[in-house]
Structures are given as structure tokens and as C-alpha cells.
Amino acid sequence: MNANTPSETLALHDTPARPDPRKAVFEANKLRKRLHRQVGKAIADFNMIEADDKVMVCVSGGKDSYAMLDILLSLQRRAPIHFDIVAVNLDQKQPGFPEDVLPAYLKSLGVPHHIEAQDTYSIVKKLIPEGQTMCSLCSRLRRGILYRVARELGATKIALGHHRDDMVVTMLMNMFFNSRLKGMPAKLMSDDGQHIVIRPLAYVAETDLERWAAHRQFPIIPCTLCGSQSNLQRVQIKAMIHDWERQYPGRIDNMQTAMSKVVPSHLMDQRLFPFTTLKTTGVATPDGDIAFDDEPCAPTAAPADPVNNGQGQTVQWLRTPSNTIVAAAGAEAED
Ligand code: SF4
After folding, report:
1. Most buried among 137, 161, 254, 300, by the most CB within 10 A?
2. Where are the domains of the chain?
């Protein structure tokens, strides 16, 4: 029996649900563990950091590089090997750049740091005619300065804050605009041959970095100070992959995993596979091509959990008796 009077009942129903602080702590903890696990895995998979390395962590004032520094400092405290971290910011003298924010933040962390002030903004403005893209020259200048600073600081690794989504977007941009199947590597030798560049956030989703930045309340510096619009294509492709991800959860991860499972015999690069001299061996290859059939659109292994197909239905992947994976529309998706 309801003992409340009608007005009491109304008042109870009108009270907005208060966020449960225990849930917020639980979620932040879960996120922290995931970030640590993914960064630790990237470091291990690509042997990014070795004993006695001095890692120059490039910090721009954006959410990604703040998160990278934050996670690396935390991993450094628990790592079984010794390595040093030096945070570096390049102040390119863009109009409105708040030059006190990063030094104050880095000082508060007690992390060794260096601020390199170089007015590349004026150089780029002077050399690039109005209305043309400034990014290519700007990033070339920035790269040269960072390499020099790394040399002067005795850094053995240069860490950049690009994440999983950046890597997928770069691969698509290279396909769309440069006719290259080429992404953004997790580890590479710099173009001057002198440095090893690493991307410890290679497995981290951008949405997780946004949430971590909000949780940690990093003093974010806006990234639009130069006024350049030339990254519009990148912005559009990023919006496109996030739209796909909303419709087909897991797609960005799949695209990135594809970058580590390349099958040269099923592409067209004659430098990677000897198509012109290909001969039969007479031996069947169980994992070989099914010659005239299209590849199945379904995953090769049926995911355990149903997924939302973006049309209000959940889809369960089923394996048929002929060992084909098919999608079966199930119940209406729950909100
Ligand atoms: S967006 Fe601005 S700061 Fe970034 S590379 Fe382009 S010109 Fe340079």
C-alpha cells in the first residue's frame, strides 16, 4: 500500500536522480585500468621503451598529450625497468597561446620539462600565401625543432600523443588522397635517421582520452589558435568513422587490427608478392583463397555477444552447418 499523499508522491518523482559518486569512482577506476593496460600493451608489443631510455614526451596542451604524459608517469612508477621522462612543449608563438599554462602544470607535477619557444607561426605566415594550407610547412618546422631538442636533451625516444583513431583516420586519408595503403606507425625511425619515435596511445580510443581528460581536469589549451582550416578533411573522416562506430560498434578496432594482419597475396603490390612468377605448388593451403567467392561479410569468428545493427535490432552471429557465419536479426534493441 502507498502511504504517501498525492503531493508527496509527485515530489518524490520530481526529484532528479542524483549521480551516484560511487559509480563515478568505479567508472574512473575502470577507465584508468583500461588506459594503463592498453598503453602497457602497446609499449610491450612494439618494444617502445627499454631500460635506461630517456623518453621525451611531447606535450601540446591538448587532451591526448596530457593523457599520454599522465599515463606514462604512472606506469613509470610501477615499471620493472628504469627509464626517464622529460616533458617538452614547443611554444610556436601562435596568437593567444597561454604560455604560462603548461609550465605551471608541469611544475605542479614535479616532472622534468623543457619549454622551447620558437616563432614558427610568423615564419609560416610570411611564407605561405593567405588562404593556402599552412600545416605542411608548420609541421615540418615543428618536427625539425623537436628532433634538435631531443638531441640536445639526450632523449633516446620521442613520444607523440597520437591515438587509435588518429591512426585509422591517417590510413583512410592516405587511401583517399594519396593512393597509398599506409597508416601512422606505432614506432618508427625519424626521417632524419637519428631518432626513434613512439606512439604509446596507439591502442587507445579517442573517446576514452576525452573522458580521462575530463576526469583529470587537464588545463586544455585550444588547438585552433593558428586559425588553419586545412585539417577539415581529417575532421570529416574522423566524423565518418565515429558515425560508423555508432552504427556498427567495434568497427574502428577492426580497422586498426586489420593494419596488423596484412595479407600481401590478397593485395596488388607486386613489390610485396611475386604475382608475375606465381606457380602452382600442387599442395592445398587450408587458409588459402576461396578463389572465385567473395569474402564473407561476417566476422571469421562469431562474436559471443549480439551487437546493435544500428536499425533498432540486435544481431547475433551464428555459425551454420556449412561453417559459414551468418547474421541473424534478433530482438529489438533495448535502450
Ligand atoms: S593546424 Fe595550425 S598548428 Fe597545427 S599543423 Fe596546421 S598550421 Fe600548424
Report:
1. 161
2. 26-258, 304-335
